[in-house]
Design a protein that fits this description.
alpha/beta; D-Maltodextrin-Binding Protein, domain 2; five-stranded mixed beta sheet; 16 strands; 32% helix
Length: 345
């Protein structure tokens, strides 16, 4: 029998505090984590239009770093990377889809900002790609610097931080320009390709990725300018600490696996390691996974099916891809980058 308190019910045996609803009864809202496990699949919001990040191939298969992170979460939940339903979302509709519960998780090149974190009711998981905004132009435009964009028409996606940053940064530099706004990624780049604008502005990674599928990629170049900081990552609805914690540590698991030297190729060898840090991470010792409502080997499942962060990055953006994007800030902390996981203990 519980003892009634002003802020909830205190279970005399477990000292668990159960929050009270407005009607005075115990709040037994089901976590999204439990709902997803019961459903048997993850619903992941992506773009589907950005090569290297989330892109639908002709076969219907989703590829890219962000698509693989959706698979990483599905692997942790179900031991199956394909138990994902992808939803292609535009820049404006993505947040409503998360807030209304249409999707469980948003991994769509979304920048972490204070207004999105607070006013829009989102919770941001660890940053998975540190980026910056840039501008791409045709080489035959002879434009070599941002100052050359004076009075130029620039294609940009509506309802994004890209649109706001562009306006703010060019105003600060006293560079008048004409924005040409579009509702989705493909329309923006199709207009640029058709010559409706002199340049197109987006995250530098997205510009580099999209350039690879233009008819003549060598005819286009990125200006040497960074207009903003763009920390990109996954986000969930801000009303469910259990689900947020699970997503947060699933993402950290890809980074920690690289830091520990655990890969999809040496996973079986690492499982016989005497290193207690490795044993905790793989769920052989302790109960880190169980404490979150996950299988204790959730991190091992991720590495087995999708790999560590380096494997995910190299497969989608690395030197053996058409993008050949240097990791730069997206290296591990000990290699001079910004990627860092709190301890698994």
């Amino acid at each position: 029998m519980g003892l009634g308190l002003g802020f909830g019910l205190l279970n005399a045996c477990t000292t668990e505090v159960v929050p009270l609803g407005q009607d005075g009864t115990a709040n037994t809202k089901l976590s999204q984590l439990d709902a997803i496990l019961g459903r048997g699949k993850l619903i992941c919001g992506v773009s589907g239009e950005v090569p290297g990040f989330s892109f639908v191939e002709g076969t219907g298969k989703y590829t890219g770093l962000e698509a693989d992170l959706c698979r990483a979460v599905a692997s942790a939940l179900f031991d199956d990377p394909e138990k994902v339903e992808y939803r292609n979302l535009g820049g404006k509709e993505r947040f409503k889809a998360l807030q209304t519960g249409e999707i469980d998780l948003l991994i769509r090149s979304t920048t972490w900002t204070i207004s999105r974190d607070t006013e829009m009711g989102l919770e941001f998981a660890p940053t998975t790609f540190y980026d910056g905004q840039g501008i791409m132009v045709r080489k035959d435009s002879k434009i070599k610097s941002i100052e050359g964009m004076k009075n130029a028409t620039i294609c940009v996606q509506n309802g994004t931080t890209t649109q706001l940053n562009l306006a703010e940064q060019l105003r600060k530099r006293n560079i008048p320009y004409k924005p040409l706004l579009f509702e989705d990624f493909n329309s923006t780049y199709n207009a640029y390709q058709a010559g409706r604008c002199v340049g197109v502005s987006d995250d530098r990674s997205a510009l580099a990725a999209r350039r690879t599928i233009l008819p003549n990629p060598a005819d286009h170049e990125l200006l040497d300018v960074a207009l903003s900081k763009e920390p990109l990552g996954a986000s969930v609805k801000n009303d469910d600490a259990k689900w947020f914690d699970a997503v947060k540590w699933m993402i950290f698991a890809t980074i920690e696996a690289e830091d520990l030297g655990i890969t999809s190729k040496n996973l079986s060898q690492q499982a016989s390691s005497n290193n207690s840090e490795v044993k905790r991470f793989l769920g052989i010792e302790g109960d880190l996974g169980k404490n979150m409502g996950l299988s204790n080997d959730f991190a091992a499942r991720i590495v087995k099916h999708v790999g560590n962060y380096a494997e995910i990055y190299d497969r989608n953006l690395g030197p053996n891809t058409v993008f050949n994007l240097p990791r730069g800030l997206n290296r591990l902390w000990r290699d001079g980058g910004l990627l860092y996981s709190p301890p698994f203990r």
